[in-house]
Design brief:
The complex is a heterodimer.
Chain A lengths: L2 H6 L14 H6 L4 H33 L13 H28 L2 H33 L7 H22 L3 H15 L2 H11 L19 H33 L4 H12 L1
Helix pairs in contact in A: 3-9, 4-5, 4-6, 4-7, 4-9, 5-6, 5-7, 5-9, 6-7, 6-8
Chain B lengths: L5 H6 L4 H56 L2
Classes of the chains: A mainly alpha, B mainly alpha.
């Protein structure tokens, strides 16, 4: 038995310590894959539901209610997918880096699986951000692409995701793959503030932030709400699809554990 | 409702191909990711179940083979 297995067993609820757990350590027990797997399974339908609900509201506001933009005409409506996807591409990277740090610090099994499950969805949103940005740039700037600070740093983000996936898949031992990926994720996290602040630090072709924490948004309320609901929908989607992926990873990596065998055989009977 | 007609809506004031190219690609890759992820999760589960059942079968066969020589001295 290795050190990390010993550490997680007390939280699997088999040693009668449950009654003495505080609410915080009670939450902590879900860091054991055996407890997290069924929890994730129960949560997935809720996140799909929220994604559909927020998506319907966001698209309705964005495509049916919001008026035309006085400068960009109807072309501005790309904002409803572009901003949410860009936010998610950065946010998911931060979460991936967070799990990587936890994994390096505490050597917990689940953290590496979480990071691995988030990377493809993050890459997808980085791609959507670049794609919709190009389709927005062509009519408004007259070009699909410029090597400006915002666009270049977002492209680097996509490469970081792809690099993380390639690196972790190239290493056979999952624990070593997790550690290597975690180091890459943490080194690359420096790129996130560069993307976010690029439009203020440098003179970019990309416009400044329409929404920020420090000043009121520079856009009409209905446009803002449409954008926020679309971004929320993408957030809920990202959680749902990452949970599905992490369940696959858990099964694969924990396949020799008794709870996985019991679960699979139980399913096979029905 | 902001639009007068469906063709108005689809034309997007002349920006149709850019707007729909953005929304379309977003929908496409999100649907594709969902499908691939679900398919992969199912494949992992089925493969592991198959291996587990095969291993269980092998074990019982081995036990039978061990028992047989004692039964027929």
């Amino acid at each position: 038995m290795t050190a990390h297995e010993r550490r997680t067993i007390p939280f699997e609820g088999k040693n009668g310590n449950n009654a003495r757990m505080t609410s915080f350590t009670h939450l902590y027990k879900f860091s054991a894959p055996a407890a997290f797997y069924p929890l994730a399974g129960r949560l997935i339908p809720w996140f799909w539901g929220l994604a559909a609900l927020f998506g319907a509201i966001g698209l309705w506001l964005g495509l049916a209610v919001a008026p035309t933009d006085f400068q960009q005409g109807e072309g501005y409506r790309i904002i409803f997918v572009h901003v949410g996807a860009s936010w998610m591409s950065m946010f998911l990277y931060l979460i991936m880096a967070f799990w990587s740090a936890i994994g390096l610090a505490f050597n917990t099994r689940l953290s590496g699986m979480m990071a691995a499950a988030l990377a493809p969805t993050g890459a997808l949103f980085a791609f959507i951000s670049l794609w919709t940005g190009a389709l927005w740039g062509k009519p408004m700037w007259g070009t699909w692409w410029v090597w400006d600070a915002r666009l270049t740093s977002e492209l680097i983000l996509l490469f970081l995701y792809i690099g993380f996936i390639a690196l972790t898949r190239a290493i056979d031992d999952p624990r070593r793959a997790d550690r290597a990926g975690a180091v890459l994720a943490l080194v690359g996290v420096v790129n996130i503030p560069i993307i976010y602040f690029s439009v203020t630090w440098w003179n970019t072709l990309h416009q400044g932030a329409s929404v920020s924490l420090t000043k009121s948004p520079s856009m009409a309320a209905v446009m803002l709400w449409g954008m926020l609901f679309c971004a929320l929908a993408m957030w809920m989607y990202a959680i749902a699809v990452s949970l599905i992926r992490v369940r696959g990873i858990i099964l694969e990596r924990e396949r020799h554990a008794n709870w996985v065998k019991a679960l699979l055989l139980d399913r096979a009977k029905h | 409702m902001y639009w007068n007609s469906l063709s108005d809506f689809l034309a997007m004031g002349g920006y149709g191909r850019y707007v729909w190219g953005s929304f379309g690609m977003t929908a496409l890759v999100m649907a594709l990711e969902t499908w691939l992820t679900l398919r992969r999760q199912r494949a992992v589960r089925q493969r592991l179940t198959r291996q587990l059942l095969a291993a269980a079968k092998e074990e019982t066969q081995e036990e039978h083979e061990k028992v047989r020589p004692e039964e027929t001295p």
